[in-house]
Each structure stands twice: as structure tokens, then as C-alpha cells.
Write a structure and sequence with these properties.
Blueprint (H helix, E strand, L loop, with lengths): L1 E4 L14 H9 L3 E5 L10 H6 L3 E3 L1 H7 L2 E3 L6 H4 L7 E4 L7 H10 L2 E4 L14 H18 L21 E5 L3 H13 L2 E6 L2 H11 L3 E5 L2 H10 L2 E4 L14 H4 L7 E4 L20 E4 L2 E4 L9 H22 L1 H7 L1 H4 L2 E4 L2 E2 L2 H6 L7 H8 L1
Parallel strand pairs: 1-2, 1-4, 2-3, 4-5, 5-6, 7-8, 7-10, 8-9, 10-11, 11-13
Antiparallel strand pairs: 6-14, 12-13, 14-15
Helix pairs in contact: 6-7, 11-12
Amino acid sequence: MKIGCPKEIKNHEYRVGLTPESAAELVGHGHDVFIERGAGLGIGADDAAYEAAGAVMTDVDDVFARADIVVKVKEPQAVERKKLRAGQVLYTYLHLAPDPEQTRDLMASGATCIAYETVTGPDGGLPLLKPMSQVAGRMAVQAGAHALEKAQGGRGVLLGGVPGVLPGRVVIIGGGVVGRNAASMAVGLGADVTLLDRSNDVLEAVDRQFGGRVKTLYSSATNLTNAVCAADLVIGAVLIPGAAAPKLVSRALLSQMQPGAVVVDVAIDQGGCFETSRATTHADPIYTEEGVVHYCVANMPGGVARSSTYALNNATLPHLLRLADLGAAEAMRRDPHLCAGLNVAGGQITCAPVAQAQGMEAISLQEALQKLG
């Protein structure tokens, strides 16, 4: 099998789909690996490191032309989508629900598109999304703390406070992987932390994990309103796998927040959970709406590219080896968790939440596998 890895071209995206170590694993399984020149420079991996691993360094057009499987980190940009072809496998984050243009292009390409974010695990989790959720949750507090500085338009609040001055109030909406990692960082800084979720089991688990250092609230409309209005920093950490994020904080509610408060929308890849959210980049990460500073960078983990890439490859490589060793159709037949990652096949949507978000029809995974042969 021929595996291709292009350089990421999204704004300030420094991660790479394959590390030299992952390339070596694929080569060791008898596969040919093609890497775009310079693809790994953002993580400190030069072309020589890939060549030492047995990969062939080439240009981007050759990577797409030769690859049976294209491995990326972020969703393919428009110029990349034009390079995809029928029968080719795309293995990357897609986040299709809020992105009809990308969805249409992927359907038109005829490629088999597997999204990291909907691959499931035996425990019902999302193991390929988890490492980046861990990174994003931790970064959300760092980013929020910086945005709270007066020079950034924030309230001028230090999250940890100082003796004689109260700490900043952090509100986290959602107690999943992102939320718990955000809570861990915020507690570590000494902030006053409140986490909201609609699952009592999650709230109990958070209470046990943090030994009461994180206040927990059931996410009723009243509790959410009261918490958000009193917060210095609100982190949106809600995820419905594959689907568009629910808009939990309306513009009207946002307008009641304290001037200079900050929101960090980690759900922005799925459309965001604040009504006022719109995707930003590392080059221009914040804007202000209703007097509230918004940080909505759609590829937050790209800011710590080396840590993120290695964490991601640890999760994605085992499935990639199966895809390469067995072929996509057979690998997904044998592994229903990998099959759950299939979002587009044979020109049709195979992920029901994506189809629902875009008012389209999805075919079943069984139908999709039949199309793949």
C-alpha cells in the first residue's frame, strides 16, 4: 500500500499526519510512504529524519497522485480536495457537520473519507479525538488567561489571584475530556472553577476526581445563566459526536456577562456552542462581541504542534496500520469502531449526524462497505 502525507496548509497549522517514527512503522509493514518535503519542520522533524525512516520525500502533487491512503491532521482545504480521487482513502479530522462546502467536495471526489473524530472505542469514547481534546482543554485555560489581560481587551483578572485578592472565576460547560482537562489546568492555576454538565454521573466523577476543588452544577437553563453571568472566563467544551455543536449561550445571555469577560469556544470545529462564535486563527485569534472577548481558534492544538503531533500519532497509527495492511473495506468490516469513522464513501454521506446537520440523507455503513467492495 502507498501512504501519502502532505504538509498541512491551514493557517498556522504546524502539525503533521505522520511522524518519522510512524513512517518507519509503516515501512516496516512493507508499505511505501511518501512525505511532502518540509511537512515535518513544524515539529522539528526534517526531511532527513523521514528518509532515515525509509520514506520518500516528494512534492505535494506527487503525494496525492501516488497515495492509496492520504494521512493528514486537519480537514483538506479546497485546493487539496481537488487532488482527491475516487477509490482513494482520506484519513484525517473532517468536522463535516458545519461545513457543507467540504462535504460536497468530498462527495464529488469519490474518495473514502474516514474522520478521526467519529472513530469510537470499546468504552464508547472517541480515542482519536481524545488526545487533541486533552490538549485543547489545557490550552483553553492558557488562552483564556492571556485573553483576560487588559492589553488583550480582557477584564485584567489574574486567574490565580494573589493574597488578599479573589481568584478569577472559570466556568466550564461540559464535563467530557475537554472539560476535565480544562478544569485540571484551571485548578492548578488556583482559579475558582465551576463545571456544568447534564449528566449526574459525569458530575459525580468530576467531584471525585478533583476532591471538591471543582464546583459542579447541573446544566439547567437557570444554573447556566447564573454561572455565565458571574464568570471571568467561560470555556465551551460540549461535543455531540459528528454533529453540530448546540448553541448553549445565546447572544442575549452573552450581553449580560461582565465587560471584558472571555469565552473560549473549544467546540468551534463543530460550529461552536456560543451563538456569537466564529472561527478564528492563531494569526488573529480573538475578537470582541457584546463587550466579551472571544477566542475561537479552530485548530488550537496546532499551537503546540510537537506535543500534539506525537499524541495524535499514538492514537491514529494502529488504525492506519490496519487500513494499510488489510485495505480500507476489510479493515472496517473487521473493526466496527474504525467503521464508525467513515463519513463519506462512494459519493454519499455515511455519518447520520453529518447528514442531519446538512438536511441530507445518509446511507448505512453496511451499504457503504458494499460499495467499497
